[in-house]
Amino acid sequence: MRDVAAPRMLAAMRTHLLAGLAALAAAGAVTAPASADSIVFIKDHNVWSAGVDGSSPHQITRDGTADAPYSSPSQDDRGTVAAAHGYAIDRVDRSGRRVSRFVPQNLKDSSGHSTAGAPAWVSLSPDGSKVAFTLTSLSCDLTIDCGARATTGVAAADGSRVYDTPGLYGGWASWITNDRVLFHGGFLYQNQVWDVGSPAEPFDWFEDQDVYGHGSSTDLGDGEVSRNGARYVAVRGYDATTQIVWYRVEGSIQSGPKPPAPQPLCMTGQDPSLRDPTINGDGTWAAWEESTGIWAKPNLDACDGPQPALILPGAAEPSWGPAANTAPKQVEKKKAARKKRKRGQAHGKRRA
């Protein structure tokens, strides 16, 4: 991992990073932040939960299949989970019981064409009242190039209300507060911020070139701001140049007008499989997906400190939340009932 303020150390730091990753992967351990936080994630087509150190993973949903998988899970502060499932957005509690389900209405993309298909991204607000979702389209006409386009919408978490959105062209939405959402629309629109319900157009927080200069700029997206507004983590680059990078936020991004561009702190080595970063509430810990599973990095301010470690092999799409990773009482009751039935069946066989 490198300190972006000291590029002369890049080669040495990259060597250190690779050595650290190999050692930690072998050890299979990472020091987690001291809290009862949890992450939800996808494994075997379903939603799971675990501690932020990867401890005590347990399955939440059980009806996901290869043909109808769950994807893009996120959780509110109470632990309710929203995820894409087919053409719908499902909300479930920690036992997997469905709280609500709705199919989001189509949106208009930047070319004026209608989006369609399954939600490509889902993000639940911290208080659980709203859900941001991204729909995509493949469109072209005589005036625009053919290509995939993403549009973000915001609805009540149960789908009962859709908030008017002034052309939220882009995807990977995440919540900065309960009423301010961040999404990404590509070059010149890389970090769009919109106050939900406001008729004002979204403002662009910053571009990669604002931090690294025009000659060194690249793609930037899939970002998330820590709950306290102090840190920001995102995917930088594309294909073989893809990295996870995190920043110190300057000023306030939680309210008011556009703040200054954040200051970069550190970034990982390059890997095309890096995606879906998430960050905890005080900005001290982050996790992301790689080809081997979910990795986590504690102490984000220490570039050469504890290195990232693989915490959940085979898992994908992590999303942090402050809810504890405890199996709900309903799950425990079901487990106890199954054990009781098995004991009764075994007792019956012995008597026979």
Keywords:
single chain; 352 residues; mainly beta; five-stranded antiparallel sheet; four-stranded antiparallel sheet; 13% helix; 6-blade_b-propeller_TolB-like
Secondary structure topology:
Elements: E1 2-3, H1 10-27, E2 38-43, E3 46-51, E4 58-59, E5 70-75, E6 81-85, E7 88-92, E8 98-102, E9 116-124, E10 130-141, E11 144-156, E12 162-163, E13 171-175, E14 180-184, E15 192-195, E16 203-204, H2 208-212, E17 220-225, E18 231-236, E19 243-248, E20 263-267, E21 275-279, E22 285-290, E23 293-298, E24 309-313, E25 316-321, H3 329-351
> Which strands sit side by side, in order, in the main sheet?
1-20-19-18-17
Structural class: mainly beta
Q: Count up the helices.
A: 3
Sketch the major β-sheet. 5 strands, antiparallel
Folded structure, characterized:
The chain is mostly beta strands and about 350 residues long. The chain is about 15% helix and about 40% strand. The chain contains 3 helices and 25 strands. The protein has helices spanning about 10-25, 210, 330-350, and strands spanning about 1-5, 40-45, 45-50, 60, 70-75, 80-85, 90, 100, 115-125, 130-140, 145-155, 160-165, 170-175, 180-185, 190-195, 205, 220-225, 230-235, 245-250, 265, 275-280, 285-290, 295-300, 310-315, 315-320. A 5-stranded antiparallel sheet has the order 1-20-19-18-17. Strand 6 and strand 7 (about 90) form a beta hairpin. It is globular and about 75 Å long. It starts with a strand and ends with a helix. Residues about 1-30 have low confidence and may be disordered. Keywords: Signal.
